Task: structure prediction
Amino acid sequence: MLTKRQNLMETIKGGKPDRFVKQYEFMNFIMEAPMGAMVGPGQTIVNDWGITFTWPEGQLGGFPVHDDEHKVLKDITEWRKFVKAPSAIYPEERWAAAIEHANAIDRNEEFATCFVAPGIFEMTHHLMSMEDALMALYEEPEDMHDLIDYLVEYELAYAKELIDHLHPDCIFHHDDWGSQRSSFVSPEMFEEFFLPAYKKIYGFYKANGVELIVHHSDSYAANLVPYMIEMGIDIWQGVMTTNNVPELIKKYGGQISFMGDIDSGVIDFPGWTPEIIFEKTKEACERCGKLYFIPGASHGLNFGCFPGVYESNDEAIDKMSKEMF
Amino acid sequence: MSKIEEVKVLVETGKSKKVAAAVQEALDAGVKAQDILDAMVASMGVVGDKFSAGEIFVPEMLIAAKAMSKGVEVLKPHMAGDSASSLGTCVIGTVAGDLHDIGKNLVSMMIESAGFTIVDLGVDVPADKFVEAIKANENVTLVACSGLLTTTMPALKEAVQTIKASGLDVKVIVGGAPVTPEYAAEIGADGYAPDAGSAAVKAKEIVA
Result:
């Protein structure tokens, strides 16, 4: 039996996996790595960039607050005055637990994985609201290019720290690039603004020992796949059913793999049942096949929003492995 | 190109810095303010259709809506005293517990561009607030509510049913990623739209 890591590599290289890769099993997340403040359930915080986030009790995530009082950047032409990157350098003692975790990972079995969020696109709209950020791409493109360069510099500085301390062999990187039905920006705009940014970031990781880039965008983004390949993404996690995943596999399999095709909204809700989860998992496995595809919910980490969902999804994938392998 | 055609093109292509001058030139050339407004509404209809068809993306829609609002500013002093929209007022918001405002804001822009006056209640709006807003504002013909999370679908249902139970004569349109036409019908909504462009079309259709 292949290890989780070997089975993943066989799957994404078009080899002979002996079972479906089971969601996030190949990624051992080193969540102890220091990173900026993240909002938790029921909290309102101001993070290291000055962005206010709130997470209403009982809801599924946090949101940046963008009223006039809280928006960090109200005028893109003044970004140099208002956007101040925090230090990417953390005291050594903050790394101790992460280093211990990284050293304990059997890298023949799993990928030592660092989690990075938010992404560059997300940062632009966290700072200034989605509407302002998207309009600025048209109205003040030079400032947006400069702001993105500044955000990339910060990411690269943080990436260096991750590499120096943990030597990860996988990066799981968030940046949502679309809604359920379309990418937020056109492919042309994406190519102009975000492709160069990510070529630098993912290129840096790959030049420094990272073998696998897993990018999360739980959205439609089929029109951006050629750019994902160009920037060095190995696995697009979060691919929703609206993307026609079997078609993407047929077209791009071997250059990139796809993780998802089970929309979280249809399995991860208060009334979930194992039967619903199995039905959706079976559909995904049967239509996408054994290669270049990892079945799993589109949600962007290794847990469900409702207790039992993630584990039930694992069980459904096990059943499908028995049926199809 | 006629002055009115020029305005249409500038709105469709989101040239917000040029629209005001073009509208003024059209007025100076003797084009009626209402005709210019109608042309801009038609342009936004084209923008909405292109968005629904995947030909354009959110930034293009945003800059078109901004261009239209710049044009409307120039028109306002030239419109009759009762220039309030003939389609009435639309109260809009995301339902209780849901803070996703991007889709709601796009729908708001497109519905406004279609000729409604907008009362935006923002995000995380309890069901009763929708009813209060209908009563507090003039000529409310439409309520638009959305939820992006599966967890807020019960709140969407509560909002629709509270509005309907109030007995007020308004139509209710719903949307959001997990919402389907079937769910919209099940909870008693009058309409459903999958995106902002379609929302404007559906809004006009159900209040007609």
User: Anything to note?
Assistant: The two ends of chain B are 33 Å apart (CA to CA). The longest helix of chain B spans residues 33-52. The first strand of chain B starts at residue 89 and ends at 94. The interface with chain A takes residues 14, 16, 54, 56-60, 62-63, 66, 97-103, 105, 124, 149-153, 177-178, 194-195 of chain B (CB under 8 Å).
